[in-house]
Design brief:
It contains seven helices and no strands. By secondary structure, it is mainly alpha-helical.
Length: about 190
């Protein structure tokens, strides 16, 4: 039953996105976003731009985001994907723009995971938070548009990315000194 619900969700999402495929503007936006999401490139760029704004808080946020997305990438692409042997959507024979074809399992979407982990970490204490999350949403959605992932792979990746981002915020707080003395782990 769960498999049927997931398949139905994926089919409905793909049918919705199909209307945008072939549109020159949508293809350019989503293929570019997908390429920038390869290897977490966009999150490294955003982190470096935050660091360049100066101040120890911005620098710490940038380093934390780069390190955490590296850990996230290993966790998702090496560990999690090996647990889920999900096939990718049927390959589109002719992509209108260049696209790297991954060979790993489809679940979860590493692009979505990295996007929402990076956005969660970079957004803390930053007025540009909406920009990070908008970019994360476009990168995540791009994977369905270019038919590299099922929509459920992306939803799973978003949830995992948000959770990993929150975990990293807790483990490496931006303010010095870590957890307050009065906080209990019990």
């Amino acid at each position: 039953m769960t498999e049927d619900l997931v398949r139905s969700f994926d089919e409905r999402a793909d049918a919705f996105v199909a209307g945008w495929r072939g549109n020159a503007v949508a293809d350019r936006v989503f293929y570019t976003a997908s390429a920038l999401g390869d290897f977490g490139l966009v999150w490294v760029v955003f982190a470096l731009l935050r660091a360049l704004r100066g101040g120890s808080r911005n620098e710490r946020a940038a380093v934390r985001a780069i390190v955490a997305t590296g850990v996230e990438s290993f966790t998702v692409n090496v560990l999690l994907k090996s647990l889920f042997r999900r096939s990718r959507p049927v390959e589109q024979p002719d992509h209108p723009l260049p696209l790297r074809q991954p060979l790993s399992s489809s679940f979860p979407s590493g692009h979505a995971t990295a996007a929402f982990c990076g956005a969660t970490l970079l957004s803390e204490g930053d007025p540009l938070a909406p920009v990070y999350f908008a970019a994360a949403a476009v990168v995540a959605a791009s994977r369905v548009h270019v038919r590299i992932h099922h929509a459920s792979d992306v939803v799973g990746g978003v949830a995992i990315g948000l959770a990993l981002g929150q975990l990293a915020k807790r483990l490496v707080p931006l303010r010095r000194g870590g957890l307050t003395r009065n906080r209990s782990w019990t």
